[in-house]
């Protein structure tokens, strides 16, 4: 067996999810509960009747690649050869690390709190990596200075995620610009930024989040239709960047799974043909967020500003803050609410729990009330 | 960039395919031209209306895993935890190599002629590998003795493919038994066999091909619905084996792409619910094969026995046999027939060209006639 697998810890999220009983309130789930529009599926089924279901080119249908590259919209990187269609954004992250990093030489710097697949993929690929934490005392506010200070002589890639899981924070343009300026000023080989933008459509400020790719030519952007369109099971994602890196990523993609599902690609082309559908669920999330904030305020909770995605980091009271895993276990055991311990997103998440607020409003409200009661217990 | 990518040669198949012009007869294609049954797609679309499209568990729906494990039917390995659902058989091959091999220690032995993704995946993963050729003088007849003779002290896995691409040969039970007996007799850690059985349903003898997994407990079987059901674009495959290795493969699968398409999995469950549909295309291929053999006999070609799959290795005449790539290029240039040079499947394929006989009968017949004319030229 491959010994690197022993070095990959089982998921804390999965472990606590496995303890859920029927009737528990689930604020742990990382996927939309809203129903997707079935119309693109009807269209794709009609397409199968007409065309069968052959392979697409390895990198995906040229039309879809062009739609995606144009949608992501990185300056001078909007042609079909700037995008490869992947099996969800997860594969895009894998391809970026596998293709762009030389494991014998390069180091990757990962911004946390984060989805722990980033460091686990590095372990799987034998890539040296370090974590750089955003400040919990500052509610995990994105900070270019922290990232720039953490760069080492071998750092060749920074992995960041905006809008962020688990914090709900969005990297503002000013901080992204500071990051790009800092990287520009750095001598030697440019440091790439791998930007996971899978929550790109779920933002609650006035303007859409800016991508580091708009400001830094050495960026790779991962994304998918999973969260915007409630299509996690479609497994349709992308990696967008310079054509040379996209070609290298495609070489890996071809070897590891040939191509993404043709059916999923036809569904995606239907969706991109009416791009407004990508933003169609945003009002739903904005309404849910407003309710959530009202209930949390009423309950006296403290939370990090929710600027995007569908998560919220809630600060544990002092008597629980030393062990978020124990707190989440007690919350589930005694109050039957499933929340994710902050430590599941890196050491900097200790002292917090993450709520996923995609549940039904009644469940969400009851969950908040129970959390407040739990916090108030001695 | 990752320097291993430089060591992976571009595909010869792809290069010659790129030279095809409109109107050329395509006997190069590696996928069915028959149309798939659209009914499972209607059912899956109805399922989306009812259920949305959430993630499945990482290893796939438990029901589908059980259906697949039972279908593959390895003794004592027919439970759901003996199968992981993958993005085509290609991902199954990748997962088997990635999870089961220790690149610092183990060597892989690959039976050729073969699909060259096997050695390329080894290069991608930094896995030492050697090729062992079946004898061209014996029409690539599967030989356990050749494989057993080639085992080295560090060999920990044998990769074989039956029914075979490109040779059309099927490993007979007697040779598989000889292989299993030889492996049983070998002292030390057991050598795994990774058996690519993606053409499992396409056989032309009386009995279905036997799997090495029926005779050897340390086998891993890769397969998919791509060829049997003309669903290459579904990207729905599997790896079946002992539960421990399947769990390790699932750990990799989870990190590299989370899970296979939920939609594709629902389609697959529909297909497995009426398992006869997996064999439904066999009479079509049997009929096409009979026609092909008649035309090749008439044209005076020499070919290796076609026992399975939808390929045929045709021997080049002496004046062309030294360079199958040049022969295939000349055939395309002068007679407008695309065939794949045998060398694209390993050194042992030199002196042959592979015909894929999924084309329309008129095209196939015309292609054979043109090949005969080409062979007859001085």
Radius of gyration of chain A: 21 Å
What number is the mean pLDDT of chain A?
A: 97
Count interface residues per chain for the largest interface. Answer: A-B, 58 and 58 residues
Classified in CATH, the superfamily of the largest domain in chain A is Type I PLP-dependent aspartate aminotransferase-like (Major domain)
Structural shape of chain A:
globular
- Uncertain segments of chain A are none
Q: How many helices of chain A? A: 12
Report, as a whole number of angstroms, the end-to-end distance of chain A. Answer: 48 Å
Notes on the structure:
2 copies of one chain form a homodimer. The first copy, chain A, has 378 residues and is of the alpha/beta class. The first copy, chain A, folds into 2 domains: 3-30 and 281-376, Aspartate Aminotransferase, domain 1 (Alpha-Beta Complex), CATH 3.90.1150.10; 39-278, 3-Layer(aba) Sandwich (Aspartate Aminotransferase, domain 2), CATH 3.40.640. Chain A is built from 12 helices and 12 strands. The first copy, chain A, has helices spanning 12-17, 39-51, 62-72, 88-100, 117-124, 144-150, 173-185, 243-257, 262-273, 282-299, 324-335, 361-376, and strands at 25-26, 83-86, 107-112, 128-133, 155-161, 192-196, 219-224, 237-240, 311-315, 337-338, 340-341, 352-356. In chain A, strand 5, helix 7 and strand 6 form a beta-alpha-beta unit. In chain A, helix 4 (88-100) crosses helix 5 and helix 6 (144-150) packs parallel to helix 7 (173-185). The longest helix of chain A has 18 residues, at 282-299. The radius of gyration of chain A is 21 Å and the shape is globular. The first copy, chain A, starts with 11 loop residues before the first helix and ends with a helix. The model of chain A has no long low-confidence stretch (mean pLDDT 97).
